[in-house]
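ESCALATION

Customer reports they have been waiting on this structure for their group meeting. Please prioritize. Original submission:
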Amino acid sequence: MRARRSRDAPDDEQGEDDEEPSPRARPRRSRSGRGPVRSWSASAGDEDEEADEEGGGLFHRRHERVYFRARDSFYFEPLVALAIILLLLVSLWAFTQNWPPVYVVESNSMQHGGTDQLGLINTGDLVLAQRIASSQVTTYIAGSENGYSTYGEYGDVLLYNPRGVAGTPIIHRALIFLDWNPNGSFDAPSLAGLPCGSSAGAVYDVSSSPSGCGTVGLTGVLTLHNIGWQSASVAIPLGSIGHASGYVTMGDNNFDSSTTPVSGITDQTAHLSDLVQPGWIVGAARGMVPWFGSVKLLLQGNAQEVPSQSWEFLGLTLVGLVLAAMGLHYVLRAEGVEDPRRKLEDEEEAEEEGEEDDDEDAETPSDRHRWLHPIRTWRERGDEEEEEPSSETHAGSASSRRHDAAPRGRPRPSVGRRAAARARRKRPRRDDPDDDDA
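Update from on-call: job pushed to the front of the queue and completed.
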């Protein structure tokens, strides 16, 4: 047992071997029962942190900083997906000026045959309906003259409410615009100057005219020749198409193949609607997304007319999207587009499990997958690690080494004691204070 040094004994009476550092004096408690407030200093804070790391302190716990990142939240991915959907819908509305901006094609009236052809309007496609002025609509007759075509045929494809009743719109092509006269006749100004009657390459003929020509005061039956991909003859009975100006519309696949030549069936002839007035038009087809509308038709039990190729293309597209997403995720992780703290923790866990090579010069997994060198922001592992200091200088440089070794960049949040436990296992234990003073 060591003898305690007397208070009155001079310093030179005690030998160096008998010197013993006085223990840290406990602060006197005030009458109120609370200890005196000690001013904070960097060295005092470092000592407290070191004591906590070594298992000392009142609660034997190291208080670590807690960082919050939005992407670590459980709701981050759903919120991002919702934001993307909202952004997409707003963009579609801004482009089409319509709500809803997208409509599903529910029948095969616009197909060119019974198979799915990319670039044409098929059953199950999603079509964007852009609101346009009636003066901007180009009919089949006008498009055949100036070369304007959409979805495999001349002219614009219109989405309209039949007879002006709001509901599921019809999506068919505008053939010609007719002006109604109070006497019951019609004018067709777009036919002016075109071959007519029995002449070679005639575009139209009128039954009420002996020559089969004429563009004003038309009555009887107006017949359009060589219409659509079937080069059909389209007969328009002018007496039963309504009493207002409007467009004659027809689906690209609405033909009667039992006649020679093939006869086209307009919406007005089939009594689907009268002449389509400009106020009934929802919009013109301006872009589409193929195949994805088939899912809606399948859920509604109305997918009988969806071509078999559409299901195949839809399945291949979905598989391609999944593979592309997985590949992008793998590339980003392999190239290190993640938090530096997470990288350090992964390396520490790999070292504990014995999955990394003990050789310091060995190639790390992140180095083996370095494909996009310019976007890497991590320092080499050899630059990040420092030499372990000796036990003599450990106490004086513990705080500085801890801050220097901290990774740069946005930190990863840590709310548990798992990271602190790993740090304590790797850091050499501080020597006993009595041994330093001895």
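Sent to customer with the following note: The two ends are 15 Å apart (CA to CA).
Escalation resolved.
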